[in-house]
Amino acid sequence: FAFLRSISGMALLVTHPDYLDTRCRLAVYEHFLNHLAAQTGCWRALPHEISTWWRQRDKLEIVDDGDAAKLVGPRADRARIILLSEIFRNID
Fold first, then answer.
1. pLDDT tens by residue, 53-77
2. What is the largest CA-CA distance in the chain?
3. CA–CA gap between residue 90 and residue 92 (Å, rounded)
């Protein structure tokens, strides 16, 4: 999770009761959820919220205004442009 945060990544956890069928598995799952709950500055989104975000993101355009590229469109204030080289610069 720390690595994903460092690159502005997303953690998606899909669970099913058939696989959380022992005390040990439930304890690991609970530990994971408690760890996530303790994190700050994260977006804890439900599936419909992610769907809405992607639909908004799909309407954004990158335009060159002469000095630098910028995002335009609905909710452009919620997005940013970042180069892949910036994301992965500190990864060994």
1. 889 989 999 998 788 889 999 889 8
2. 59
3. 6
